[in-house]
């Protein structure tokens, strides 16, 4: 039988898969805590400068903090000329995320999901403890880079594993659940920071959850979809039979169809270069890279624009995660409807995000009214959060198993570029007051238009190999023309 039929026989989302997905979803809470760590441990409390030695005519050299807070700023006096080091530590973490996306994605396509996930999680926990026990700022900053490297890599692998353990009809559910629990993890970290104030203790407690996740993850099997895509059919059958036993189904003697060995041409042509060489993958990757870039630019740009509120820093962190939660039920509802699907839903949410940004330029600045710039910006963030979540699910379905993590890694890399550029967009107000929202509006609308060029994946079989992309069920007219062009070019060079 084929792989999808095997999942139907074993149980597409049985008891065992639910437990496995629960472990991977718990990992999202840990990764969310690491992502938001610098927001609380890098907090700069109020301070004043006093002359050293009590000489009022002298140059102010001694820093006295007037607010009771414990952070890396108070420990290493990261104020005035040293204040940039707080932002640098955050930038190093996101630099690590970008590198992790690029390195770990192709690596997990080559050697397997499980070893890359476990190795990355193990070292992220180790480097997380280095962060909490760092004797100097330099060690702290280096550890944040390494934590980001591991976090960016295992985040993608964890997301893909949660989908490849279950049947295709449940991919949207597990993908959306992963994103939703990440947002919950941000909120929980805000609550944890309120209870645990010393920054080293907070870093230790937040990182210790990773130990529990690692111990639970050790029992997880390799992805049967990855094993099957690599020609390791016997191992894939073993994993599926194990799932059948744990699910309590009778499919304990299933046999998968043989489609070639691990060294066959169908199995050996995977790799990140195929994203540029393969005609269908090239078009999909270019479109998806721009969609991810636009989602990131609008999401983080609106976060900066709508997040400049005063109040408790712990509440601000919690709200940063909770404001996204309404987006995920919307995603689950729309992307599983035949009249909406993945493609139209993602494009529609991007259009709505762009429209919300457009409306901010048409309403007067009146913070007391219901229809204000702030409320429209938050609405735009809600819409782009939904589009962002769909982009994760949709992208994993558009790439074959043999290259899925590589594709997600490249798209996530372009996402980081958008996140890096987002803080600079508000400074465009110097040109015109409406310029930042104009950029966000055009980004959302253009990404929505380009997203309509992609094929729909709802209720269609997931591609396992590159050869399956040539099937009409996996493409659209634009991609079919690309395949036809490549075929004609091959014929002309081989006459």
Topology:
Layout: H1 3-10, H2 15-41, E1 47-51, E2 60-65, H3 72-76, H4 84-111, H5 113-132, H6 137-164, H7 171-195, H8 199-217, H9 224-229, H10 233-247, H11 265-268, H12 274-277, H13 279-306, H14 313-322, H15 327-335, H16 341-360, H17 373-398, H18 404-421, H19 435-451, H20 477-493
Antiparallel strand pairs: 1-2
Helix pairs in contact: 1-10, 2-6, 2-7, 2-8, 4-5, 4-6, 4-18, 5-6, 5-8, 6-7, 6-18, 7-14, 7-15, 7-17, 13-17, 13-18, 13-19, 13-20, 15-17, 16-17, 16-19, 17-18
What does this structure look like?
With 495 residues, this protein is mostly helical. A two-stranded antiparallel ribbon has the order 1-2. The longest helix is centred in the N-terminal third of the chain and has 28 residues. The radius of gyration is 24 Å and the shape is globular. About 3% of the residues have low confidence.
- Poorly predicted regions are 261-268, 306-310
Report the order of strands and helices.
Answer: HHEEHHHHHHHHHHHHHHHHHH
Helix content: 55-70%
Biggest β-sheet, characterized? 2 strands, antiparallel
Distance between the termini: 40 Å
Quickly give the structural class: mainly alpha
DSSP strand tally: 2
Summarize the structure.
By secondary structure, the chain is mostly helical.
């Amino acid at each position: 039988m084929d792989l999808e039929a095997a999942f139907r026989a074993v149980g597409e989302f049985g008891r065992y898969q639910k437990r496995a997905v629960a472990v991977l979803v718990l990992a999202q809470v840990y990764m969310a805590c690491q992502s938001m760590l610098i927001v609380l441990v890098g907090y700069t409390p109020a301070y004043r400068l006093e002359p050293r030695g009590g000489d009022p005519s002298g140059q102010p050299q001694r820093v006295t903090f007037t607010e009771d807070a414990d952070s890396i700023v108070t420990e290493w006096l990261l104020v005035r000329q040293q204040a940039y080091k707080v932002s640098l530590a955050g930038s190093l973490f996101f630099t690590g995320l970008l590198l992790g996306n690029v390195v770990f994605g192709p690596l997990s396509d080559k050697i397997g999901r499980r070893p890359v996930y476990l190795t990355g999680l193990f070292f992220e926990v180790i480097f997380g403890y280095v962060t909490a026990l760092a004797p100097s700022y330099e060690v702290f900053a280096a550890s944040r880079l390494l934590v980001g490297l591991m976090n960016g890599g295992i985040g993608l692998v964890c997301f893909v594993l949660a989908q490849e353990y279950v049947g295709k009809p449940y991919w949207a559910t597990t993908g959306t659940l992963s994103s939703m629990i990440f947002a919950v993890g941000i909120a929980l970290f805000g609550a944890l920071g309120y209870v645990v104030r010393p920054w080293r203790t907070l870093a230790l407690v937040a990182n210790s959850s990773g130990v529990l996740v690692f111990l639970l993850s050790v029992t997880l099997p390799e992805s049967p979809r990855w094993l099957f895509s690599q020609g390791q059919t016997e191992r894939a059958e073993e994993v599926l039979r194990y799932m059948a036993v744990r699910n309590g189904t009778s499919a304990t003697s299933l046999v998968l169809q043989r489609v070639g060995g691990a060294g066959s041409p169908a199995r050996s042509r995977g790799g990140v270069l195929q994203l540029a060489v393969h005609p269908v993958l090239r078009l999909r990757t270019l479109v998806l890279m721009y969609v991810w870039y636009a989602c990131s630019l609008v999401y983080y740009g609106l976060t900066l624009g709508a997040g400049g509120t005063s109040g408790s820093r712990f509440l601000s962190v919690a709200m940063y995660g909770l404001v996204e939660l309404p987006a995920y039920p919307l995603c689950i509802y729309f992307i599983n409807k035949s009249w909406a699907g993945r493609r139209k839903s993602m494009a529609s949410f991007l259009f709505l995000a762009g429209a919300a940004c457009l409306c901010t330029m048409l309403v007067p600045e009146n913070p007391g009214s219901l229809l204000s710039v702030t409320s429209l910006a938050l609405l735009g963030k809600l819409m782009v959060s939904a589009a962002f979540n769909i982009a994760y699910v949709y992208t994993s379905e558009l790439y074959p198993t043999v290259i899925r993590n590589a594709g997600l890694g490249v798209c996530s890399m372009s996402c980081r570029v958008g996140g890096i550029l987002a803080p600079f967009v508000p400074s465009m107000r110097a040109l015109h007051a409406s310029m930042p929202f104009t950029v966000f509006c055009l980004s959302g609308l253009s990404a929505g238009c380009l997203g309509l060029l992609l094929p729909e994946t709802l209720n269609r079989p997931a591609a396992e190999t590159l050869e399956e992309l040539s099937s009409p069920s996996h493409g659209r007219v634009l991609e079919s023309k690309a395949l036809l062009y490549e075929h004609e070019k091959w014929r002309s060079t081989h006459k």
